[in-house]
Structures are given as C-alpha cells and as structure tokens.
Amino acid sequence: MNFQAKLGTFLDLLWNLIGVKPKNNSFAMEKALGRGTPKRIAVVTGANKGIGLEICRQLSSNGVQVLLTARDEERGTAAVEKLRASGASDVVFHQLDVTDSVNASSLADFVRNQFGRLDILVNNAGILGTESDSQRRGGGSSFFMSRETYKKAEECLNTNYYGAKKVTEALLPLLQLSQSPRIVNVSSVYGKLQGIPNRSIQREIGDVNRLSEKKLDELVHSFLNDFKEGKLSKNGWPTSFAAYTVSKVALNAYTRILARRYHTICVNCVNPGYVKTDINGNSGILTVEQGAKGPVMLALLPDGSPSGLFYDQTRETSF
C-alpha cells in the first residue's frame, strides 16, 4: 500500500473515532499532505528589505501565504521574524539566489512539496549595476554614482533580467497548476523604450508580435559586448545607468512575451515609483508602503484582468 493510500485509511479511522467525516475526504488528504490550502501561495524575490519586504507584508495582510526569498539566509530569516513580530504570521523564508538555476530549481521543489502549486510570483530582486555610495547631509540623504563597469553591468543583467527568467522558468509548471496564476515583474521608469536612443533597437523590442525570447537575449548580449568594447554611444545604447536601463527594458519585453505565450497566466510589469530604498541611497520621495501598492494590486488582480501591460504604480502606462 502506498503512502497516500495508507494516509487515506488512517484518516477514515480518525473520522470514525471522532464521529465526524468531511464531505471531501480527498481535500482533507491534500491538507494533511500540506496541499489543498485555500490560501493563495506567493513567492517574492529579493524580499529581505525595501519594497520586497513590504510586498510580503501587504500580501500577508490580504490572506496570502508568502514565501519571502533572499540571497542571504541570515537577513532573510531576520526579515521574516520582523514581519511576524508585526502580525504577519503566514510568511516563511527560503534562500534564493536568482542568478543560480540550481537554486531556483530547489525553490521550485520546496514549493511543490509544501504546497503543490504556486499562485503568485513577484520578481522583485534587482540591483542598480553601478559602483555607488550614499551619504547623509543635514538630516537628508544624497546619492552619488561613481562609475559603471563591465563587471557591474554583467551582474545587473544577470540579476534583473536573466535572474527573473531563471526563477520564472523554474516556477512556471507550478503556476500552471493554479486556478488564477499571476506574475508581477517589478520594473522601473527606466524600463520605458524611450531609454534606448537607437530607434531601430526600440522598434525591435517594441514589436511585441514578432519579438522572440531568443532575439531579446541576442540584443542583451549585443549590449554587453558593446559595453565591453566601449561602443555604447556609437551603437545607440544608453550611457547613464546603462545596464539598469537595458535590464528593465528587457524585463518589460519579457513580460509581454510571457503574456503572449501563456494565455492562462496574468503577467504584468510595474514601475513602483521613486521609492526610498537602498538602491537609490534612500533619496526617493515615496515610502515603501506606497511603492508596494502597485505590485500588490497586480498580484491580486481578479480573474479576467488584462495581461501583458506596464503600470506606473497603479495606473496603466505605455511601454
């Protein structure tokens, strides 16, 4: 007799002993296996601080079971404890380096074994891609960008774009088991196509009906090559916050590709606004509570909502 059959027999004996039997014994079995929970299940990447942490808090307050993920286990665990201390009980931690495919697969295995499905994925992990520093003056904060290096550009693309892809690809089979799956890609105002000076590249990335994932990857690879060879300006790439801009433009394009490919999954991207976070030296004008509002809104969209769109906080905007 296999494990599930044994569990079914055990549950029948238990119901007989207590004199109550549920109408749906299969659901009870799913519950005993850690599945079948009525709560929605969400994974949030890069969530040990800032907007990601607040997204977890707001999702939890809306009755969602949240998996807070972060690269650093100590910081991630501390973040969960902080949320629980504030009353957010349905939050657990799982270590995740979004640039590591094996790590992403391990997360997928954990979600599969614990919950059997995934309802919400928020790709929030991101870095600026510059050597930067912040310094406080007169009670305020000032942000200084030192320089952009090829190494930092690679790290930025590997985290913001390729990292989001790795995590999404690992979790897609579990999202497809959900009755109302959602993917939210946290982007930026820098993700707008106008940030790419080269009009030809703008047109290629903006042609959502013809753009393929392979072509998008080729364009990102071309950017990195041009960065390495000092040809950004010559070939019409941005020269300020270059890698960050290209990473967010690519993430937005990937959002549209996913929406076109998976009609049953609601996939959108969002600029959370200029929020006070470590990435900008806390020089933003919005609070993390305000910044999380858009991503959380998209994560909780009702069935039948539009997919493949870009939002500026809570309002639809153009790509």
TrEMBL record:
* Keyword Oxidoreductase set for record: yes
Q: Which UniProt keywords apply?
A: NADP, Oxidoreductase
Query: Is the keyword Oxidoreductase assigned to this protein?
Result: yes
GO molecular function terms attached to this record: oxidoreductase activity
GO cellular component terms listed in the entry, alphabetical order? membrane
What residues form the membrane-spanning segments? none
Q: What is the name of the protein in this document?
A: (+)-neomenthol dehydrogenase-like
Give the family, as the similarity comment puts it: Belongs to the short-chain dehydrogenases/reductases (SDR) family.
The UniProt entry, under PROSITE patterns, shows: ADH_SHORT
Show the InterPro entries listed in the entry: NAD(P)-bd_dom_sf, Sc_DH/Rdtase_CS, SDR_fam
A Pfam cross-reference name? adh_short
